[in-house]
Amino acid sequence: MLIRYGMFLLLTLSFSAVAETGKPSYVPPSPVISTESTVQMIGALLLVLAVIVGGTWLLKRFSLIPAAASGVVKVVAAAGVGQRERVVVVEIDQTWLVLGVAPGRVNKLHTMTKPGSDAPGTKPDHPPVETFATQLNQSMEKENA
């Protein structure tokens, strides 16, 4: 029994001594992502986002981005006539409206039909699709014959 207790004590002391002293010159590696690199990355990201937002604001401010035409109402043209006043041409169902736009106010200046639009009841200058298909088939038969 004394031998068993002695061996147990010897093994326990030897393992704890190795575990404590292990490698006295061992220095753990520095972390891969340091605080400085994280701050630098976040700063660069904020700078890129600021450039994107600023560029978008400038494009909208100087009307370099055309407004998306959706639905029935389409903005055909716009021109600034003052610091906050604009003249806008709007298309609504083959009709153009010339509008004067100011802060809090819109006035109709003129109404006209859309230039180049076909009047109802007139025949279009271009032939129907069936005629084109017939002509295409005839020309293909001539080349094959």
TrEMBL record:
Homology family: Belongs to the FliO/MopB family.
Protein name (record): Flagellar protein
Pfam families assigned: FliO (PF04347)
One Gene Ontology term from the biological process aspect of the record: bacterial-type flagellum organization
Keyword Membrane: yes
Keyword Glycoprotein among record annotations: no
PANTHER family linked to this entry: FLAGELLAR PROTEIN FLIO
Species the sequence originates in: Nitrosomonas oligotropha
Gene responsible for this protein: fliO
Record field: transmembrane: 38-59
Entry keyword set: Bacterial flagellum, Cell membrane, Cell projection, Cilium, Flagellum, Membrane, Signal, Transmembrane, Transmembrane helix
Residues spanning the signal sequence: 1-19
GO cellular component: bacterial-type flagellum basal body; plasma membrane
Subcellular location: Cell membrane; Bacterial flagellum basal body
